[in-house]
Write a structure and sequence with these properties.
The structure holds two protein chains of two kinds.
Chain A (H helix, E strand, L loop, with lengths): L3 E12 L2 E12 L3 E5 L6 H8 L7 E6 L2 E2 L7 H5 L2 E4 L11 H11 L5 H14 L15 H13 L5 E5 L7 H16 L4 E4 L3 H7 L2 E6 L2 E6 L1 H6 L4 H20 L1
Parallel strand pairs in A: 3-8, 3-9, 6-7, 7-8
Antiparallel strand pairs in A: 1-2, 1-4, 4-5, 9-10
Chain B lengths: L1 H9 L1 H35 L2 H16 L2 H11 L9 H28 L1 H9 L4 H21 L1 H9 L11 H12 L2 H30 L14
Helix pairs in contact in B: 2-3, 2-5, 2-8, 2-9, 3-5, 4-5, 5-7, 6-7, 8-10, 9-10
Classes of the chains: A alpha/beta, B mainly alpha.
The complex binds adenosine-5'-triphosphate (ATP) and magnesium ion (MG).
């Protein structure tokens, strides 16, 4: 029996009178990579933000391992350091070098001493192939490099799970590959990952499971094989067809 | 011209002492105003309702009334409430309290410009709200604020001149004394005008140096510096 790292039950999020999603159930096994796909405005980002407690759900529960993190007693800051998050726009700390970006959480949150933090930070930069850029500021790095630093920053906290919210959507096409490569390696190394992306190639190759979300609910989920070749629902088929068309065209234009 | 030079030479030491007092007033007013202004800016952006309300009221009140009125209220007004402050202390207090309101607005603008996304990024690695403000937001906001904030030390230096009205012996007070002793107001006031000008130029150079020193590659400091 595999270990469940993340369990979501009946999760509901409402902004004003806009029900973003309702009664979402989702669980992720240790070491799995789950990819969420779905049209814009479906609530994918909001779901990730709920998991990371960056926004409060209106109903439902979330467990990280055996701990219910939606319970009132939990220390949110403590929970967040165990959940890595990578954003579409990188969100590096702009006044700090790549190394300092990775180091900060180690010192301020994990309370490592300077030498230990530095060693660990270098190790994480090594993992994303950016040791030679350690002393560059975000403004001196390409988008792809910034996103890899952001990944290293999240990894440095030794998270139980990594959340990725369209990590390559803000990148020039020629920079997407290097970020996906880092993610692919991470997945192979056994990191538990929940990834929102439109990169169908990545989803097909790396995902253990694909979840198709539309209009605030999970329409269907399954292995890449099943979803791409034998989708149960017309809506899934249409979305996959549209997205392949869209991204396929873009690639041809390049 | 030689009259004027004679005046300058005769009162040189006096002007120097006055200039020292003026710089002291500027420095203390600036530091006090910065600390209080930072508190007000944080209160207005991140504070709860009462704190936000207080900060707003404070800023509006101190920016909406003349510095001279504030100075007289402190020096002549407070004693009727049983608080008597020396001339110098009253001057420090008036300048500091007044400058805080202006500095708060510069700092608040910069904090808002850094935006919510950096807060999200900080929280996402497990930093608390205050840790994020301290280690992420402020280091960026303060840098961003420098170009527009640089107006404040200059304006403050020039507005210290009002304190001679409660007989603090600043540069302006020395000018007044020179004018009455020599019956040469034009010469006296022109002389201190030159001294003020020299101080402003020096301060400007210092601020430019600070701006260069704080610069981070690829992190643009926006905003244009206004006229003096
Ligand atoms: N802070 C907020 N306040 C109010 N409404 C919000 C907020 N954040 C998101 N929403 C709404 O929630 C819905 C889902 O947004 P969300 O960003 O989660 O979608 P998404 O699936 O990530 O879309 P995309 O592919 O464009 O990133 C949208 O209708 C959006 O307008
Ligand atoms: Mg989104």
């Amino acid at each position: 029996m595999t270990n469940k790292i993340l369990t979501i039950k009946n999760l509901t999020k409402i902004y004003g009178d806009n029900i973003v999603f309702q009664n979402i159930d989702l669980s992720i096994n240790e070491g799995d990579t789950v990819v969420i796909i779905g049209p814009s405005g479906t609530g994918k980002s909001t779901l990730l933000r709920c998991i990371n407690l960056l926004t409060k759900p209106n109903g439902g529960q979330i467990w990280l391992d055996d701990e219910e993190i939606t319970s009132k007693e939990v220390n949110e800051d403590n929970v967040r350091q165990h959940i890595g998050m990578v954003f579409q726009n990188f969100l590096l700390f702009n006044h700090l070098t790549a190394l300092e970006n990775v180091k900060l959480g180690l010192i301020k949150v994990k309370k490592l001493d300077k030498t230990a933090a530095e060693a660990k930070a270098f190790q994480e930069l090594e993992r994303v192939g950016l040791v030679d850029r350690a002393h560059h500021f975000p403004g001196q790095l390409s988008g792809g490099q910034q996103q890899r630093v952001a990944i290293a920053r999240a990894l440095a906290m030794d998270p139980r799970i990594m959340l990725f919210d369209e990590p390559t959507s803000a990148l020039d096409p020629e920079l997407i590959g290097e970020v996906l490569e880092v993610m692919r390696k991470l997945s192979l190394a056994g990191m538990t990952m929940l990834v929102v992306t439109h990169e169908m190639g990545f989803a097909r190759e790396v995902a253990d499971r694909i979840v198709f979300m539309e209009k605030g609910s999970i329409v269907e989920e399954g292995s890449p094989e099943d979803l791409f070749n034998r989708p149960k629902f017309q809506r899934t088929r249409e979305f996959l067809w549209k997205i392949t068309e869209l991204y396929g065209k873009k690639e041809q234009e390049e | 011209m030689s009259d004027w030079l004679n005046l300058l030479i005769r009162f040189f030491d006096d002007f120097l002492v006055g200039a020292g007092v003026t710089l002291e007033l500027t420095a203390i007013g600036l530091v006090m105003g910065f600390l209080l202004g930072l508190g007000l800016a944080l209160g207005k952006v991140y504070g709860n309702k009462p704190l936000c309300w207080f900060s707003t009221a404070y800023i509006e009140l101190f920016r909406g009334t003349p510095l001279l009125v504030q100075l007289f209220l402190i020096y002549y007004g407070l004693p009727s409430l049983g608080i008597t402050l020396s001339q110098t202390l009253s001057a420090y207090l008036a300048l500091g309290l007044n400058s805080a309101a202006y500095q708060a607005e510069y700092l608040r603008g910069a904090i808002l410009a850094i935006g919510n996304t950096q807060m999200t990024a900080g929280r996402a690695i497990g930093l608390s709200r205050w840790q994020t403000i301290l280690h992420i937001i402020l280091p960026q906001a303060l840098r961003l604020a420098i170009p527009s904030w640089s107006n404040e030390p200059i304006l403050l230096l020039k507005s210290t001149a009002v304190v001679f009205l409660i007989a603090v012996q600043d540069l302006m007070a020395k000018a007044k004394r020179a004018a009455t002793t020599t019956y040469n107001p034009i010469g006296s006031y022109l002389a201190v005008a030159v001294v003020y000008l020299v101080m402003v130029f020096a301060l400007n150079a210092l601020l430019k140096w600070l701006e260069r020193k704080a610069r981070i590659p690829g992190f643009e400091m926006e905003g244009k510096k206004g006229s003096l």
